[in-house]
Amino acid sequence: MAVALTEAAAVKVQGLLEKEADTLNLRVFVSGGGCSGFQYGFTFDDKINDNDTVVENHGVKLLVDQMSMEMLNGAEIDYQTSLQGESFVIRNPNAASSCGCGKSFTPAESGGSGCANAGY
Length: 120
Fold this sequence. Notes:
By secondary structure, this protein is an alpha+beta fold. The protein has 2 helices and 10 strands, in the order E-H-E-E-E-E-H-E-E-E-E-E.
């Protein structure tokens, strides 16, 4: 298993990268913090580290470091437009719950229950 990027998310990333260097890739990571213990992060990176997992979906290279991959394995990153606005949404099977702001989560092994979708 790996992390998947939907076509909608790939189109958005490609649009963001349109005016940037061709060497940039989307890095997705998990860091400590947020209301629920861990939070998702996105950045563009031109460096691929030795411990990165590289996944290519719909023409976009996605970089995930080893620690983050443990918490994101099997996750799907989508881009959605709704009445509340536009955002990246992570459907993470490893998350037991996410906080009200939708940017942080509690891993399944830590307990808790609730929605495993987080908007970013």
